[in-house]
Amino acid sequence: MNHPPNRPDHDLDRRDAPRPDAIPPVVVAGGGIVGTAVAFALQGSVPVLLVEEGDFPGLAETREAVGILKAVLGHPVLDDYARATWDFALAQHHHPRSPVRLTFAGLDGRPGRAAFLDPLLLLDAMLLLARRAGLQLRTRTRVVEPVLDGGRVTGVRLERVGDGPGTASRRGSGGSHGSHRTAPETAGATGTGKIIAASALVLAPGPRPDSLAMPGLPGGFAGRFVRVKDVVIPFLLPPGTEPEPEVYTRRSLIWRFATGMQPRTLLAAARLEGDWAPPSFDQVVALVEDLVHRFGLPGEAQLDRTRLLVDLRGPGGLPFAGPVAPLGGAEGIFVAAGMGLEGLSLALGVGRQVAAAVMHYLRAHR
Ligand SMILES: Cc1cc2nc3c(=O)[nH]c(=O)nc-3n(C[C@H](O)[C@H](O)[C@H](O)COP(=O)(O)OP(=O)(O)OC[C@H]3O[C@@H](n4cnc5c(N)ncnc54)[C@H](O)[C@@H]3O)c2cc1C
């Protein structure tokens, strides 16, 4: 019988890890599936504080995901990342006390290489296990900036996010949530908010370029991520059509999903680059015509149920998962962003990659 891991399941070598009680926490900014996976992969080796500005982890882009998990993505690095998440989800699926259940699907005609699942249950599973291992979680709190000393992270500035009077917390635009308001906690040296000690900062902000423009990151770093819009258009298939759960992909251009989650509905997703303004009705109609033409889609597009989400595509079309210092930023800042439409599939692999980089840094600077 498969058991879900009862502690963070990763390959870090704990023998050389700094003594957990000897260092301030690693602060992970962003409690989406990616930040949660980073916290999950780190927890048990070092103290970790997961900071989420929303009411609870997972309520931003992760909640919007269709829920497709792929065992392979067709790229050597991404396949490694995907395998980590797939194995974790599979272990959860087989565990009688885990609510995570997979609906297995074919991927590009090959059976058993993809599955549908509830993204929030996947996140909850990681969060629960990490919390059991000691993860601290702070919600309705925003990481505003790192505190640097000698070009290295020694703390982070936090601001509470509340409903009371305050300053709008968003710097920049394009986030997928509504606007929160901030209330200062304690006046710090150079601004409002509260400063806490931190041994490293991991930014996992999802589609939030403003968080990637913080002090301490290399100039122009946020500009390495391309803004993209993902338009998901459901097609209602003709009566009597009950397709097997199946996922079809066309990397970087157009994906089409036939999902078993909602019978007779086929989801087509198209990715557009450019600004973050919603596409006009005419643009969506043109997209539908293009999809129908390319793939010969049956059924009718349900334009009133079309969803648009914004995201960041990482440098070279790949996620960024690691330290920023080699690019000229401060030591001790790490970024996990640019997952595109594959963040669920990539999350745990990316989490482990970043956790390994953080542990390497902490060992080197003990
Ligand atoms: C329509 C659509 C369908 C998709 N379907 C799939 C799918 O089927 N399969 C798949 O693998 N992927 C899918 N994706 C992609 C997937 O949803 C994302 O890649 C993934 O959710 C990104 O997770 P994240 O943790 O990076 O971002 P998010 O879930 O957005 O989490 C980031 C979090 O960081 C918080 N935050 C940001 N800045 C700060 C800060 N400074 N301080 C504190 N908190 C902060 C935000 O509040 C947010 O909660 C889909 C995407 C879209 C748009």
TrEMBL record:
Sorted alphabetically, which Pfam families does this protein's record hold?
Answer: DAO
Coiled-coil segments: none
Basic and acidic residues bias spans: 1-19
Show the segment(s) annotated as Disordered: 1-21, 158-189
Record domain FAD dependent oxidoreductase: where: 114-356
The domain of life is Bacteria
Q: Which GO terms describe its cellular component?
A: cytoplasm
Q: What is this protein called?
A: FAD dependent oxidoreductase
The major lineage groups are:
Bacteria, Bacillati, Bacillota, Clostridia, Eubacteriales
